[in-house]
Amino acid sequence: MKFKLTAECKEFHGIKLFRIEALIDIPRWGVKAGDEGGWVEKEENLSQVYGDAWVSGDAWVYGNARVSGNARVSGNAQVSGNAQVSGDAQVSGYARVSGNAQVSGDAWVYGDAWVYGNAQVYGNARVSGDAQVYGDARVYGNARVYGDAQVYGDAQKTPIFITGLKYPITITDAHMRIGCEFHTLAEWAVFDDERIARMDGVASRHFWKAHRDTLLAIAKAEGRS
């Protein structure tokens, strides 16, 4: 046995959460036997036997969610629904993982990020800031999703991030975000000068004229449509 539920509890929308206490040392996370951890609804939320999985700080894990392997949920993060956090993955800060979402491998979800639906984040991927990954999206490899980015739908490919220009750019399977403007690639391809100018005036029109063909060519070469 790795931990026990303590008598310290709190209720959230009718769900009772219990503070956990370590019964053994977990050197990977600097935990000593007797240390208090985060909050779970039931023992099944955190692997008791295998691996060094841990919930710490003021983090919550509840519903049918499960943390296993060597994963850690910390800070004020919340994992709920049928979500799974496994492998060496970490969820921290104020991040949320819910629904049927899975975070695994060496992935890290942090900040105010939210992964939900049937989304999967794995490999060495990072999702941070106010980013959202949802639907059937997959974020993996060395992908970085940050800021206000959204990856959703049936996204299967690693997002493409382009920085160093006037506006940051994110290209997903069928969409492109330039600055605050988020549209399908098909829509970007047919926007005229008037439509582009409504985004940010002359600046956006000059930007699109200079970079339109290159950005659409990158998307096409990478199999985005």
Short description:
This protein is of the alpha/beta class and about 220 residues long.
Q: Explain this structure to me?
A:
By secondary structure, the chain is α/β, with parallel strands linked by helices. It has 2 domains: 3-151, Hexapeptide repeat proteins (UDP N-Acetylglucosamine Acyltransferase, domain 1), CATH 2.160.10.10; 160-221, no CATH class. It is 16% helix and 32% strand. It has helices at 185-190, 193-221, and strands at residues 3-12, 15-22, 36-40, 54-55, 60-61, 66-67, 72-73, 78-79, 84-85, 90-91, 96-97, 102-103, 108-109, 114-115, 120-121, 126-127, 132-133, 138-139, 144-145, 150-151, 160-162, 169-171, 175-178, 181-184. The strands form 4 sheets. A 9-stranded mixed β-sheet has the order 1-2-3-5-8-11-14-17-20, with no helix packed on it. It has a 6-stranded parallel β-sheet with strand order 4-7-10-13-16-19, with no helix packed on it. Strand 23 and strand 24 (181-184) form a beta hairpin. The protein is elongated and about 65 Å long.
